[in-house]
Amino acid sequence: MNKPLCIIEAPSNLGLKQPVPGKEPGVKHLPNWLKAHGLYTLLSPKQVIRIDPLPYTIDIDPESGVRNANAIVAYSRKLSTTIQKVIESNSIPMVIGGDCSILIGCMLALKSIGTYGLFFLDGHTDFIWPALSKTAGAAGMDLAIVCGYGHQKLTDIDSMKPYVYEQHVWCVGNRTDISWYVEAIQSSRIRYVDLHTLRALSIACCTDDFLTLVDQKHLDGFWLHFDVDVLDNTIMPAVDSPQPNGLSYEELHEMLSKLFSHPKYVGMDITILDPDLDPTGKYTKDFVLQLYRTYSLSLVKNQD
Question: How far apart are CA 157 and CA 260, in angstroms?
């Protein structure tokens, strides 16, 4: 039987720098934006829960070197508690951000209840720490943080470090090829599959290999992180760090349909789509329909 869906609205922009001086990142509007464009109506969630963050500031925490670090820690705890309750109630959480720093609360929740894997689907690796960051934003460090890299204020909340073990993580879809940036993740135990390698291996092979890992390691389940900047710019330009090329919706559909329909899939987060960068809703409308198409077909597959 398919588990009911619970949407958790996590409209945090605490992990990002200002796009221009005096302006907050617009990703905080994403839950309302997706709702306005029909996603909630299409998905018919059993429950919608909203967790508002503390106010956005541009302050960099001197202790950790991360922007809004204390607020992110407090928010991650609240998000973690909510996700735990949703999973323990036998529902599937879909956490709608917000920026990528919400992953901290997601993985903190899973570490609190078991040992989980992470399929990290993103146009960047997000595997850097303050000394490598040019923005001091946790949204660009989230994968490193959840694996235990960086200041303990963020990496060891409630003595839970690491929130996910490196060997249980697949980082898929990066298309930033700067040598120092790639070398950081290549030096870890994370399975790193950039966009070129993904297409060379085939999406089916990559996804099946990850799911085999989940089964062979007897993990309690896995989480999906979906940063929409992994998509091609022609279909999703409304992101804070756009890059050329990216996944097509057909490629995304092939990947997500396998993940959604696996019995150990426990939930996902969606990040970075900025409504301010899609004022007519042109790209959002298609995104909503494509996500619903993939999600609904996976439910049918589960019933077969």
Answer: 29
Contact partners, residue 250, CB within 8 Å, separation at least 6: none
> Per residue in 72-129, pLDDT tens?
999 999 999 999 999 999 999 999 999 999 999 999 999 999 999 999 999 999 999 9
Residue 202, burial from CB neighbour count under 10 angstroms (0-12, 13-18, 19+): exposed
Total domains in the fold of the chain: 1
Q: Check residue 52 and report its DSSP letter.
A: P
CATH of the domain at 133: 3.40.800.10
Q: Which domain holds residue 280?
A: 5-303
Helix ranges (DSSP H) in 65-223 = 69-88, 102-113, 142-146, 152-155, 179-186, 195-201, 203-216
pLDDT in tens, 151-180: 999 999 999 999 999 999 999 999 999 999
